[in-house]
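Service request form, structural biology core

Requester: graduate student, group of Dr. S.
Request type: structure prediction, single chain
Budget code: on file
Notes: please return the result as structure tokens.

Sequence provided:
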Amino acid sequence: MISVLKLLIVGISIYAALSIYVYFMQSGMIFYPNMPGRNLTSTPEDIGLTYQNAEFITEDNVKLHGWFIPNKNAKGTVLFFHGNAGNISHRLDSIAIFHRLELNVFIIDYRGYGQSEGKITEKGTYRDAEAAWNYLSQTQGIGEKQIIIFGRSLGASIAGWLARKHTPAALIIESGFTSVPSMGQRFYPFLPIRWLTYFKYDTKQYVKDISCPVLVAHSKNDEIIPYEEGREIFDVAHEPKHFLEMQGGHNDGFIVSGTSYVKGLKSFINKNL
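Core staff response, request fulfilled:
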């Protein structure tokens, strides 16, 4: 009886310790600004594109950095929110794709990423998104109906939040998750994750409240964010909407999918610009 009681106490202690660890360490589980590093390793010039360095200030006075890559044949502009690791210099493949699709590209680093100042938080990323929108509308003079908001992975939730606040031409959600609690429950099904998480990133709710056209792209082979998460986001989106099934893993799906991915983007973009 005593040994069973000891085992129970040990079990409860381990469970409590793991819960405490998840609660206090969740920021480090979500954001990876230093992986592979904050230094910009390349620029659009390395793939033959001219660009403008953009520096702009958020409402809470944080200086952010991004690139504006103009296209002389631009039919519109894509506002690009990247995932939770790396910085804008690691997204040249995507920049090249959008450039070939005759779009200006505006891609930013969140606070604490790349050359942007500040410390990353969920609320901070939303402020960063709003500042990026204002840069396009006020500094570049681009109308909202000429802007497509694009977000990949973590950026998909930030893109959804911004699209709910404004009325862009369209929203593209790529490899997105429904919410942090949902993902956390998948990784730690034995923990009360929905009570432990103070991060929300409620992509599903954001998309549910959006009225603009939505494209959701996801791969069945995504090893980080399950395909079902993308399908749930698509299911709550209002018409007009389209689902683009990708191939490959979480970080290389848009490359592995090749022509089908580019054609899917092109068809959607041409319908909405």
